[in-house]
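ok trying again, last paste got cut off:
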Amino acid sequence: MAGMKTLVLASSNPGKLREFEALLAPLGMEVIPQAKLGVAEAEEPHASFVENALAKARHASRITRLPALADDSGLCVHALGGEPGVHSARFAGEPMDRGAQDARNNAKLVQLLEGKDDRRAHYYCVIVFMRHGEDPEPVIAEGSWAGEITPEPRGDNGFGYDPHFFLRDFGKTAAELGPEQKNLISHRGKALRRLLAKLNAGV
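nice, full thing came through this time. structure:
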């Protein structure tokens, strides 16, 4: 990533912005959310995480003429056949206020899992880096994070499904982890480190 000091982040999610800033700031990278540059969110009509991430990165880079970073991520629950998956942000309907939307999504998740013994789940993340809007060789990396869904929310950190995403090895939910600890082990942290390794290797 030598020579690239400013990136546009193809997201308006404040939780994602905090995580990307924490991971990239030590490398001297400035991450600008697309909304600050007047870029509306891209459509995400695709059935796979990687297609949605590519669409978001391409959209932001074309409009801003800056290198763009985009991720598409979500929660995949075994007992629900992988749902909510790419529909994680809109699981309980079209988004409204971010906090209210998270609460609605979590309530639906808990309700659907009521009485089910298999509560295994994993977070999955694909990150795409585009040097420019017509980049024919976008750099793509992925990461996953295994856990299980707990009926009762715990913790005030994180966002999305974190209060219900229980990590047996830690005895905590993702929302009970500090930001630094979460970034070390999360799906997004893993994917971004793999992406940076590819870029540093000249991929």
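cool. The radius of gyration is 17 Å. The domain at 6-200 is CATH 3.90.950.10 (Maf protein).
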